Amino acid sequence: MIHPGSISLYARFMSQPLPLPPFHARFQSFEETADGSAGPARLKALREELARRGIDGYIVPRADAHQNEYVPPAEERLAWLTGFTGSAGLLIVLPDVAALFVDGRYTLQAAQQVDGTAFTVVPLAEISPDRWLEANLPAGTSLSFDPWRTTLDGREKYARAVAEARGVLVAVPEDPIAAIWPDRPPPPAAPVRLHDGTIAGESIADKLTRVRAALTKAKVDAALITDPHATAWLFNIRGGDVAHTPLPLSWSLVPREGQPLLFIDPAKLSNSVRDALAPAADIRPETDLEPALAAFAPGKTLRLDQATAPVHLAEVVERAGGTVAKGADPVSALKARKNAAEIAGMTAAHVRDGAALTRFLHWFDAAAATGSLTEIDAVEALETFRAANGDLADVSFPTISGAGPNGAIVHYRVTRASNRTIGTGELFLLDSGAQYPDGTTDVTRTIAVGTPSADMRRHFTLVLKGHIALARAVFPEGTTGAQLDPLARQYLWAAGLDFEHGTGHGVGAVLSVHEGPARISKLGTVALEAGMILSNEPGFYKAGAYGIRIENLLLVAPRAVDGAEKKCLAFETLTLAPIDRRLIEVSLLDAAEVLWMDAYHARVAAEVGPLMDDDTRAWLAKATAPLA
């Protein structure tokens, strides 16, 4: 239900002088979070520390011990060292070069944030870190890595590359960056809360039964759960240790038989939360993790996820006489397949979120026309419209608010230094999401400000055609994201265009907005299954001019197909917000695409319209009018 005050609050916003009503962003900052100018001095200090230890080079991943996407301030080593604030990256420091590897989302951003005299930005599309090491690591060089922040897969890649270069790979258990970071923030200690059982849809006991069945099938004695998202899902808990994801940092050890162990800072647990969890788990402080693991491991086979488990913990198991069975975390696949209660919660959250976004889009059309609206104004306004629902817990990631050329920076984060006025004749790219008590959202809309050019309309329509193709896809069980990815790119490819990011990522239910194991991308090797929720977000980016992206979230659901010889799946769209008709070149759409677009807009009007005031309902009627 929409908060009773939201419509009257919206009306007050609309009555204020534009473009600066009393908007506020509580959950995101526009300050610079890292200092690129300090990079050269910090890099020099790191090299001196490595030399003191007799080591030539060091690998600095953008990771904590859990491989979280969002990490607490105390774990922002890469940002502190280089000034690069993207959510993915890796630095290799050698005596004469420091190579910062970033994917296509961050190529432009990294070049702007780091000091180019100290750091060399290397696009991953051109070369991977291991191949770069093979070509650039001098023979005899000792290259070190952090065994707490390096995965089993990562170590294997580095080992092969270093061996090929005839170097020496060395684990350094004591973090050298900690030794040169004098004002490092303390670890987080946010309180843990119980996740509502009616929203979780499954008890801890039932989840543990399913995990144990997976362990039995895999013929392992236990699983060490190193991903705190998995532990949060398994024990129906949520927290606040990292930004934008309701995550309590924790570990768990789930044996095939017997009570599981939950390792978490006891200061995070109230008496009531501890009492509720006690029947399900032996709760211990995180400092007990290594001795407990060493005590359990002798003669046992433990499942560790090679993509998230730190090398250090695998070595603890092996030194104690246990066997590491590498493989996917058994919770990962279970968590990705949402149950009926989780789907209901996500669906309800998207209706409320769509209402907030629709109110924003109505307001934005008037505010942008004044010529004085900025990117930060838009972020603050959208967050305030979402907060007016009365149940906004957080944004699910920092809002991407890119006007004109800033929209071409795929994961642009506006700061007070980069803040730009949204000009007439430009495109405005707005990628945002929210965390609600019952669901997580992620939606992108590209908006025309003034009259769009013919190229803008053509590029937008090519992106839209790919978005529709994926949304309409029907496919047999067992189909992977990599097989579906070309559907979203085909029209761009035919025009000699493409985008340098995945088409879609998994989304958690009141958890991470980026969730594995499935994704729709060239690298998406996991089959899609009913109950999974993924994004559909093809785009096009004209450097220095504009960016285009259209994103909805999709639910994978069974689909009956007459005469089918295999069980089939299809997508159901969860996101409800108008797509800018002013940017659609209707002549480029076929009849089926027009039908899909009109049906989607009719659904938006039917489900979101009743939650609007009269003025916004009238605006929405025009924004969702049939194309034909």
Strands side by side in the biggest sheet: 4-3-2-1-5-6
Overall domain count: 3
What's the overall average pLDDT, rounded?
95
CATH homologous superfamily annotation of the largest domain = Creatinase/methionine aminopeptidase superfamily
Quantity of strands, as a count: 28
The percentage helix is 25-40%
Structural class, by secondary structure, is alpha+beta
Q: What is the multimeric organization of the chains shown?
A: single chain
> What is the gyration radius calculated from CA atoms?
25 Å
Textual characterization of the structure:
With 628 residues, this protein is of the alpha+beta class. The chain has 3 domains: 6-22 and 337-622, Creatine Amidinohydrolase; 36-180, Creatinase/prolidase N-terminal domain (Creatine Amidinohydrolase, Chain A, domain 1, 3-Layer(aba) Sandwich), CATH 3.40.350.10; 193-336, Creatine Amidinohydrolase, Chain A, domain 1, CATH 3.40.350.10. 35% of the residues lie in helices and 18% in strands. The protein has 20 helices and 28 strands. The strands form 8 sheets. It has a 6-stranded mixed sheet with strand order 4-3-2-1-5-6, sandwiched between helices. Helix 11 links the parallel strand 11 and strand 12 (282-284). Helix 15 crosses helix 16 (375-387) and helix 17 packs antiparallel against helix 18. The two termini are 33 Å apart. Mean pLDDT is 95; it is low at 1-7.
